[in-house]
Design a protein that fits this description.
This protein has about 400 residues and is α/β, with parallel strands linked by helices. It contains 14 helices and 12 strands. Helices cover about 40% and strands about 15% of the residues.
């Protein structure tokens, strides 16, 4: 890891081995201080802050985020989280009976539920195309995924980095092929900003939603929705508010921005703190931090493989970055196994139950070190024999 002692920059409980940055992130102290400063300013004069300054403040802070993401501020709006962004698009797409939404079998559960709900209400079908794990090459992933496309495919919904398997999908190639076939694309980038470099304009998705409060290190409740200019008019708001009929003198000139920038009273402090998170990463040479985290995971994946007897799940280095999964034997009680990892070994790590297989998803962030992975190895040596029996996966 980097020689910087960045663990001191975070508010995390030092008695916990925190290997779960991927679930909700962790905010550095300077960024959290900025967040609290915005909250105090809001409470000092709420009417001035929300009634007269809000739109100017949002325009100011969306600019550095747009630069970070490789797009124009006119293509971005803040949303509370990526799931909200997915719901915005799912509610906006006009579906007819028989239409199909094509996804993979490695998507985030809440977003699966979103599309299942929307499709069931319109007589459409939500298709979860199976993809192999351990991963195959990018070209093979594209071809296997494309086998799910039919003449009824209305939209492709796909994660940039998956939640259950931590696999980076080749979304650029899939978006390009979809555009050639006139199919809309929505990319779930919940885990991407701050973990991998992004250029949203070059990715070529019609819609892209992501979180700032995970790997970008902003306070909780900051995400974004990107919409390419040709499709911005397709979006309908989940909440209709004052932007529906904006005074021409106050309008941004964009229906997309007017409808989605203000959706009622809320605390925008997390949004306003995003530039502080970007600055924190710039000041601490974050590309080196990312590489150090990746290198450490890469070093330890074979060690976990030797312990569990399952192969390393990624064929190439670019299929994962700071987050990776290891397969473990089927547990008799996966929840109890997770509880014991926390209660007995003070290790916070998510257990994954996916396609009748069990995984641990390891996140490495600037506050982690090799000793955290050593501790996990030691815990697994003790716990795995207790929870499984050889050959059956059951006691």
């Amino acid at each position: 890891m980097s020689d910087q002692n960045l663990s001191s920059q975070f508010l995390l409980d030092p008695t916990i081995i925190f290997l779960n940055h991927g679930s909700f992130g962790a905010c550095p102290k300077p960024v959290f201080q900025q967040y609290q400063s915005w909250q105090r300013k809001l409470e000092e004069q709420p009417v001035l802050f929300l009634g007269r300054k809000y739109h100017d403040l949002i325009r100011q802070v969306i600019q550095p985020l747009a630069e970070f993401l490789g797009t124009s501020p006119s293509n971005l709006v803040f949303v509370p989280n990526a799931t909200y962004g997915v719901n915005l698009i799912a509610r906006s797409v006009i579906l007819q009976p028989g239409d199909e939404i094509l996804s993979s079998d490695q998507e985030y559960g809440a977003c699966d539920y979103t599309w299942e709900f929307i499709c069931s209400n319109h007589g459409a079908r939500y298709i979860r195309q199976p993809l192999p794990f351990p991963a195959v090459s990018e070209d093979e992933i594209v071809e296997l995924f494309w086998q799910g496309v039919t003449n009824r495919t209305k939209l492709i919904f796909l994660s940039h980095i998956t939640s259950p398997t931590a696999l980076r999908f080749p979304v650029e190639a899939i978006c390009q092929r979809a555009r050639e076939h006139g199919i809309l694309t929505l990319i779930d980038g919940a885990h991407a900003p701050g973990q991998i470099l992004l250029n949203l304009d070059q990715i070529g998705a019609d819609f892209y939603t992501g979180n700032c409060h995970k790997w970008l290190l902003s306070p909780k409740g900051a995400g974004f929705l990107y919409a390419a200019p040709p499709v911005q008019d397709l979006i309908e708001p989940l909440v209709v508010s004052w932007g529906y009929q904006t005074d021409p003198a106050k309008s941004s000139g964009s229906r997309f921005l007017d409808l989605l920038t203000w959706t009622g009273t809320h605390d925008p402090a997390a949004y306003l703190s995003v530039p502080a998170a970007i600055q924190f990463q710039q000041e601490h040479h974050w590309q080196q931090v990312q590489q150090d985290c990746h290198t450490l995971i890469k070093k330890y994946l074979p060690k976990f493989s030797a312990l569990t007897g399952y192969p390393v799940l990624y064929q190439h280095d670019n299929q994962y970055q700071q987050m990776a999964c290891i397969e473990i034997p089927l547990m008799q009680n996966l929840e109890m196994f997770k509880t014991q990892l926390y209660d007995q070994f003070r290790i916070e790590i998510p257990t994954i139950d996916w396609n009748q297989r069990h995984f641990l998803r390891i996140s490495m962030q600037a506050y982690n070190q090799a000793s955290d992975l050593d501790a996990l190895l030691e815990a697994l040596v003790y716990l795995i024999p207790i929870h499984v029996s050889v050959g059956t996966g059951k006691q």
